[in-house]
Amino acid sequence: MRWAAIIAMSLGLAGCCCFMFQGDPYYYKYTRAKPDEKDLVGVYAIDGKSLDLARRWGAELTTSTIELKGDGTYVMKDVPLLAMGADRKQLTNESGTWTVDKHQEWWVVSTRCECTNEKGQRATAFGGVNLIGEKPPYIIHFTLGDPDSGDCIEFERQ
After folding, report:
1. Interatomic CA distance for residues 143 and 158, integer angstroms
2. Which of 20, 45, 59, 67 has CA atoms 20 to 30 A from the CA of 142?
3. 157 backbone dihedrals φ, ψ, rounded to 5°
4. CA pair distance 139, 154, nearest whole angstrom
5. From CA 79, how far away is CA 8, in angstroms rounded?
């Protein structure tokens, strides 16, 4: 009886520990203080770890950049669509406008572009991407799939 109680307690503790540590591993790194937009302006390049992951997932690229301009526009060059939950081999080159907005308890870069889909139809696309850090230089962080997986693509300011 004593061993049964010890085993039950051990399993219960293990279950609690597993539950406590589930979730997005970047949760505590997301930006909680509103960044000044001028501190976000610049060119961001995919980091080495993210480039390796993108290649493993099938994207064929040597570089990938996002430029946030001071006039509120942005340009993405060769950004793997896997960062946006789409075909892993495709890259996107797009431009549009960006702002800093509050999402839940974090601040994100919100984007808006007039895009053409695979059928040639024009549409307005909206998106939001997390920031990491509480002061410049910030990191642009795309979560891939389930946040619990920890898979992400990150862009660092150059």
Report:
1. 21
2. 20
3. -70, 135
4. 7
5. 49
Q: Which residue has the higher pLDDT, 79 or 156?
A: 156
Cβ atoms 63, 45 nearer than 8 A? yes
6 within some domain: no
The total domain count for the chain is: 1
Phi, psi of 83, deg, nearest 5: -65, -20
How would you class 63 by CB atoms within 10 Å of its CB: exposed for 0-12, middle for 13-18, buried for 19 or more?
Answer: exposed
Q: Per-residue pLDDT for 2 more than 60?
A: no
Produce one character per residue of 98-127: b if its CB has 16 or more CB atoms within 10 Å, e if not: bebeeeeebbbbbbebeeeeeeeeeeeeee
Judge whether 49 lies within some domain. yes
Nearest alpha carbon to residue 48 among 133, 153, 147, 120: 153
